[in-house]
Design a protein that fits this description.
The structure holds two protein chains of two kinds.
Chain A lengths: L1 E8 L4 H14 L3 E6 L9 E9 L13 E4 L2 H7 L8 E5 L13 E5 L1 H7 L6 H13 L4 H11 L5 H19 L5
Parallel strand pairs in A: 1-4, 4-5, 5-6
Antiparallel strand pairs in A: 1-3, 2-3
Helix pairs in contact in A: 1-4, 1-5, 3-4, 4-6, 5-6
Chain B lengths: L3 E5 H11 L2 E6 L6 H12 L5 E4 L3 H13 L3 E6 L1 H16 L4 E7 L15 H5 L10 E3 L4 H18 L2 E7 H5 L1 E5 L34 H21 L3 E4 L6 E4 L2 H16 L4 E6 L1 E3 L3 H7 L5 E6 L5 H9 L4 E6 L8 H14 L6
Parallel strand pairs in B: 2-3, 2-4, 4-5, 5-7, 6-7, 10-11, 10-13, 13-14
Antiparallel strand pairs in B: 1-8, 6-12, 9-11
Helix pairs in contact in B: 1-2, 1-6, 3-4, 9-12, 10-11
The chains are: A alpha/beta, B alpha/beta.
């Protein structure tokens, strides 16, 4: 079983990343749970969700020590850095996450997703760049499954948007596969 | 069979209700279950025989459900803890008038307004009647998305079969969490057998009266006896529970709903360490599954009740065990979600303190 926490500000597409991953893994035939954090505050506040993916029945959907964390801002790094299990991996959007990571028992993969998105003149796909990098590295699912999940979610929306999503996913994946690991 | 879908718990209840033939929903907003009300608004709008009402209050909503049920519809309302308190008068009237209805309580931290985090604070209220008067409410406690869908169907069936309000007791986490669900096929409401007691116009037949004011004590006593006999039948027919790794266990954890999932994770962990621990998960909270507990007590001495409150179901566990075995308790109230590690540590400490490793 692998548990992943996605965390950032509301509006960064944090819940969308988790939901897409969950749906893709479900369609792959895995057992999954998707647990969005909810609170009284919504806009501008913090957003996070936990996705568990397993070949067996999942008991607790909560991650007290997640295998992976995808971190989109500094406050989320402060919250989750210590929680990731030893040997786990933190993925950061290094354009925004500037705080240094003190642990040496975990891997850190820094993706300047916001900068890449700006270069592509499409800041909307920042989360897709992160998700592409995450999937390419963890192999929890495939980019094709992610695309299928996205078309399921975006039913009836413009196909141009789907092309853009694919571009984001591919760019993120490529960035990681070319060796962004530190 | 329909396709597997990924759906939020609250919405799964809504979809399952519509498929079970629910054609009337009235509710008043409260977190963390607004997704259910929202879902019912859209679903009822899409049916040509469905009615959705956002009522002016919880009290209005439950009374609208009373009316819809009297008229023969499969009717539902939902709320979260403080809102369920407001509905209790109506639930007592449903019981008195022997009206079927499904009520969903997505529990949050309490007492008072409390908070909006997942909790199991309303066990007493749910299983001990909740409203005034001498009555019982069937209480179902799902622990997964699939079970939310399945038990919602069951809730409507029991409500009609026993002419009784049925409570689905979930919590904020189950309402918000998404899991894969395969829904049962929808029921065609035209296939329901006609109800012989509903108020649908007396033209061509003698009039019927449904009321809960029985000023003449013998009449009230008759109703109380009738209800008591009905509750006896229910107690015999429907208790449900899940047993996990109990056959060789010398210690049993008892938990329901979200707490049971966490406990199951803990049991799996301690099993890996060689501890013989099992889980009993009540699925009906009233009637409580006494029999499996009684049977376990023949060879198990230590029982640990885990609840997301300060100890409510533990009373029913003690009643079921009738003094056999030691009953321990671990609880996290206030909307805190424990981790399997935390429960595993508690299990471990009891296990070794009681020298169960020597058994």
């Amino acid at each position: 079983m692998k548990k992943t926490v996605f965390a950032g500000f509301g509006g960064q597409g944090v819940l969308m990343m988790g939901y897409t991953l969950a749906l893709a893994a479900m369609d792959d035939g895995k057992e999954i749970t998707y647990l969005p954090a909810y609170g009284a505050e919504m806009r501008g506040g913090t957003a996070n969700c936990t996705v568990a993916i397993s070949d067996e029945e999942i008991f607790s959907p909560v991650a007290s020590s997640p295998d992976y964390a995808v971190i989109m801002n500094n406050p989320s790094l402060i919250k989750y850095e210590s929680m990731v299990r030893s040997g786990g991996t933190i993925f950061t959007n290094s354009s925004l996450v500037t705080k240094t990571i003190g642990r040496d028992d975990i891997s850190v993969i820094r993706i300047p997703a916001s900068d890449i998105a700006k270069k592509l003149k499409e800041e909307r796909i920042t989360n897709m760049i992160m998700l592409g990098a995450f999937v390419a590295q963890t192999q929890l699912t495939s980019l094709d499954s992610i695309m299928n999940a996205l078309s399921e979610i975006a039913k009836g929306k413009k196909s141009g948007l789907m092309k853009l999503n694919r571009k984001g996913l591919d760019t993120g994946a490529e960035y990681v596969l070319k060796g962004a690991q530190v | 069979m329909s396709k597997k879908v990924l759906m939020r718990g609250s919405q799964a209840i809504g979809e399952a209700a519509v498929r079970a033939g629910c054609r009337f929903y009235a509710g008043y907003p409260i977190t963390p279950q607004n997704e259910l009300t929202e879902y019912m608004a859209e679903a009822m709008d899409g049916l040509n025989d469905g009615t959705f009402i956002q009522a002016e209050s919880e009290l209005a909503a439950i009374n609208m459900v009373i009316g819809a049920s009297m008229a023969g519809a499969r009717a539902m309302t939902s709320s979260s803890s403080p809102g369920i308190s407001l509905k209790q008068e109506g639930i007592s009237f449903l019981a008195a008038q022997e009206l079927p209805a499904v009520i969903v309580n997505t529990m949050r931290g309490g007492p008072g307004l409390g908070n909006i985090a997942p909790s199991q604070s309303d066990y007493f209220q749910a299983t001990r009647g909740g409203g005034h008067g001498d009555y019982r409410t069937i209480v179902l406690a799902p622990a997964s998305g699939q079970e939310l869908a399945d038990l919602t169907r069951t809730a409507f069936e029991y409500a009609d079969k026993y002419r009784s309000p049925v409570l689905i007791l979930g919590d904020g986490m189950m309402g918000q969490m998404m899991e894969p669900i395969v829904f049962p096929e929808p029921i065609d409401v035209r296939t329901f057998s006609p109800k012989s007691w509903i108020l649908d116009g007396a033209k061509g037949r003698p009039s019927r009266i449904i009321l809960s004011l029985l000023l003449n004590p013998p009449e009230q006593e008759d109703l109380n006896w009738r209800l008591a006999r009905k509750y006896e039948i229910i107690t015999r027919e429907i208790p449900m529970s899940e047993s996990y790794m109990t056959s060789d266990a010398n210690m049993i954890v008892i938990a329901y709903g979200t707490a049971a999932r966490i406990a199951k994770g803990a049991v799996k962990r301690v099993r890996e360490l060689g501890l013989k621990v099992g889980l009993l998960r009540p699925i009906t909270l009233w009637p409580f599954p006494n029999r499996p507990l009684k049977e376990l007590s023949r060879h198990v001495r230590e029982f640990l009740v885990f609840e997301m409150n300060m100890g409510q179901m533990i009373d029913d566990v003690k009643l079921a065990l009738e003094g056999r075995g030691n009953v321990h308790f671990y609880g996290r109230p206030g909307g805190i979600i424990s981790t399997p590690d935390e429960i595993a540590k508690t299990i471990n400490s009891i296990y070794h303190r009681q020298h169960l490793e020597e058994d």
